[in-house]
Backbone:
């Protein structure tokens, strides 16, 4: 048996070994880069959209300019980026179950709670970075493109927009963790992505159709509404005038519920991983 | 050292392991034999902490595997060569495994060299043949330079050269004092590789033995025909053999081998018309032992 000590030296303290391995795993599969490429292309598309808004504005007569209402790029890309990072979270587990790699992974690192924590930390770090970077890049690019044109919504100072963009980025992180949890529990890529998309797209639309005040009450604990409530705005049902004012969560409460999503997703993953055979 | 202690595993109603106990000692290749469905893979999965036992436990070097921080340095295992992400290169796959156990890149390139995959290290595993994947899995098992090694059907998919390579590797690992557990459902494979045999069927231990012992136990004597059978019987019995006369006049001699029988007959000037050893092959001995515990059998018997 040849010298083990020769190989001890790589890396820092022991606590970094498993996260480092998970980081290596994440960046050595193509799906990760496809997902990041998708995010990048959405950012580019948002800039193209802004170019279109600018040229539209330039071609409008003064009275038309008064009524121009347009969504903002950093808002437009939020949902695609959420989906992309949710898929990244889902795949971090389901790609291993689909290929059988999970058996190898849990053989070389049998302490499943440690693997879960490391994998979640790595995916969370990527999702947080991507969520914030995509939002702010879309924001700054749009401001550069629009320039001095006084288009409504494109002239607000960064200080005013910062909380919204930051909260949007946080929601990306939350969704990545929900995806990771769903992937660990369901073990199926299609099943877990369906679950996340139903939660993100279908449920909020359905809830809006509920009678007042349930539309606002239930909506207020869904991720989309939590993101707006985190910056002090009312839930969508209230904002749209479909529900009575005064329903909803304070910003700290909204942030707490967002954290609760992460806690529940990771706890479900921990239970599934430790109770079931691989 | 591997210790399996009264291990029981049930999947729903089905009992796959039933109070199974045995030990695997260092310095030897231990063949782990049993028909398909006997519980060999399940035993290994439980040992590696992938499956939780219903009762009982398996220990490696006196410890539960599932609690090990860097198990690759103590135990190397190859259960399923296909349990890899096809999108990674061989090098990246091993680097991912090595990193979590704090094993450096130089060791990764060493084992790739050792298993003969250095030339394809940067190719995606998805394009590997089963034989190449077996080599990759073997490389993963060797990464941490462990004292205990477990292989589940390692020659599956290997070409003849690969089979010889695996045999030599197993022998040399054991010769270095390591504990080697090697499963197979084929006796012929074990005959050439294993020192000790652990044979299980239907989740229970059938026997713990050695290759030589198993062959001896199923010795059915030597069939001898001679025109002077009565005289020959006397000579052989005088030499310590037991002799039975068959209805057709043939003698079944136990306790002497073919050469000794021939020498004795020549010494007595007795002609021999037939000398046929009737010891069962190991394969037959094994079939006999596991006949009661074969899970899936083709019809017609």
Residues:
């Amino acid at each position: 048996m040849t010298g083990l000590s020769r190989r001890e030296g790589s890396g820092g303290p022991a606590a970094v070994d498993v996260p480092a391995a998970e980081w290596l795993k994440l960046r050595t599969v193509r799906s990760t880069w496809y997902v990041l490429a998708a995010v990048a292309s959405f950012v580019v598309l948002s800039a193209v959209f802004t170019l279109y808004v600018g040229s539209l504005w330039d071609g409008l007569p003064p009275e038309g300019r008064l009524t121009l209402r347009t969504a903002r790029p950093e808002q437009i890309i939020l949902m695609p980026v959420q989906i992309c990072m949710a898929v990244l979270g889902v795949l971090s587990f389901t790609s291993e179950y689909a290929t059988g790699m999970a058996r190898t992974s849990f053989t070389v690192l049998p302490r499943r709670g440690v693997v879960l924590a490391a994998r979640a930390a790595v995916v969370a770090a990527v999702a947080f970075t991507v969520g914030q970077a995509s939002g702010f890049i879309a924001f700054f690019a749009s401001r550069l493109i629009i320039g001095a044109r006084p288009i409504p919504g494109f002239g607000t100072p960064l200080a005013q927009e910062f909380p919204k963009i930051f909260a949007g980025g946080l929601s990306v992180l939350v969704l990545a963790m929900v995806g990771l949890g769903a992937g660990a529990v369901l073990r199926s890529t299609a099943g877990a992505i369906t679950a996340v998309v139903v939660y993100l797209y279908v449920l909020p639309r359905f809830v809006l159709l509920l009678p007042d005040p349930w539309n606002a009450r239930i909506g207020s604990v869904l991720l989309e509404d939590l993101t707006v409530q985190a910056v002090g705005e009312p839930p969508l049902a209230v904002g749209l005038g479909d529900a009575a004012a005064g329903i909803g969560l304070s910003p700290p409460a909204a942030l707490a519920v967002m954290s609760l999503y992460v806690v529940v997703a990771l706890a479900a993953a921990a239970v599934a991983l430790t109770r079931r055979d691989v | 050292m591997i210790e399996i202690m009264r291990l029981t595993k049930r999947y729903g109603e089905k009992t796959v392991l039933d109070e199974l106990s045995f030990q695997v000692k260092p310095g030897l290749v231990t063949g782990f034999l049993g028909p398909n469905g006997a519980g060999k893979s399940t035993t290994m999965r439980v040992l590696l902490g992938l499956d939780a036992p219903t009762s009982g436990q398996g220990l490696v070097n006196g410890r539960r595997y599932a609690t090990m921080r860097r198990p690759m340095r103590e135990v190397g295992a190859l259960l399923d060569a296909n349990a890899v992400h096809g999108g990674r290169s061989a090098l990246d796959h091993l680097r991912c495994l090595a990193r979590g156990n704090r094993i450096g890149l130089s060791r990764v390139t060493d084992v790739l060299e050792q298993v003969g995959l250095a030339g394809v290290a940067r190719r995606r595993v998805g394009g590997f043949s089963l034989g190449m994947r077996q080599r990759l899995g073997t490389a993963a098992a060797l990464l941490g330079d462990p004292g205990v090694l477990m292989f589940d059907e390692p020659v599956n998919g290997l070409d003849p050269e690969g089979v010889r390579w695996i045999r030599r590797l197993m022998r040399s690992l054991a010769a270095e004092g390591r504990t080697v557990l090697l499963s197979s459902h084929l006796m012929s494979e074990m005959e050439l590789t294993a020192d000790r045999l652990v044979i299980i069927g239907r989740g229970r231990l059938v026997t713990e033995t050695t290759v030589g012992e198993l062959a001896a136990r199923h010795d059915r004597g030597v069939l001898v025909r001679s025109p002077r059978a009565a005289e020959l019987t006397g000579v052989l019995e005088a030499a310590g053999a037991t002799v039975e006369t068959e209805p057709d006049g043939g003698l079944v001699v136990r306790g002497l081998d073919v050469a000794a029988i021939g020498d004795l007959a020549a010494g007595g000037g007795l002609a021999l018309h037939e000398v046929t050893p009737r010891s069962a092959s190991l394969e037959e001995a094994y079939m006999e032992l596991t006949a009661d515990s074969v899970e899936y059998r083709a019809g017609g018997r």
In short: The longest helix of chain B spans residues 160-175.
